[in-house]
Amino acid sequence: MVKIFGAVLVIAAATIAGWVQARQYANRPNQIRRLIHALKRLETEIMYGFTPLPDALERIGEQSGEPIRRIFGGAAEQMNPPLNRTAQDGLQHAIETGWRFTAMKTAERDVLKELSFTLGTSDRQDQLGHIATAIRQLESEEAAAREEQGRYEKMFKSLGLLCGAFIVILFY
Q1: Percent of all residues in the chain with a pLDDT value above 70, rounded to a whole number
Q2: For the CA atoms of the chain, what is the radius of gyration?
Q3: Integer CA distances (angstroms), 22 to 18, 27, 139, 160, 164, in order
Q4: Binning pLDDT at 50, 70 and 90, where does residue 83 land?
Q5: Does an H or E element contain 32, and which?
Q6: In three state form, how does the secondary structure of 56-93 look?
Q7: 16 closest CA partner among 165, 155, 161, 120
Q8: pLDDT (mean) for 58-77
Q9: In this predicted structure, what is the pLDDT of residue 101?
Q10: If you placed Cys at 67, which of 12, 36, 101, 105 could pair as Cys (CB 3.0 to 4.6 Å)?
């Protein structure tokens, strides 16, 4: 009886691990899409709203779901008093502290870090150009992420169950 319970526990744990990994592949394209929408809203705020950058980032953070909210809201928090960091420092700090809560990879982080170097330091048209470039790069990353999702999501779901069954077979 204990052996059966242990076998069920091992299979369940391995299956859950496979589903968690598969969920990462499913979350990544959705989070990239939400990040693209957030950058498009930032583009609109800069172009039409004439909103100061910390206020724009805070507003975009409030409109975005987690974990995108954590990045933009954290950047706005870093730029506002009492910290008064630059846009570059604030956004990079927010990326470093909030990135672990995302399913996104290094390529997306690098795009945002590149954007942080120009955000708030140049004129409106230059910033809009850099945001548009970041959006294009993220759109290509989203396409790659959707391809990876299609390729690996089902595999990890099955692999978790199969690994659990393999471990049980090895022990018995």
Answers
A1: 100
A2: 21
A3: 6, 9, 21, 10, 16
A4: confident
A5: helix 2-44
A6: HHHHHHHHCCCCHHHHHHHHHHHHCCCCCCCHHHHHHH
A7: 161
A8: 92
A9: 93
A10: 101
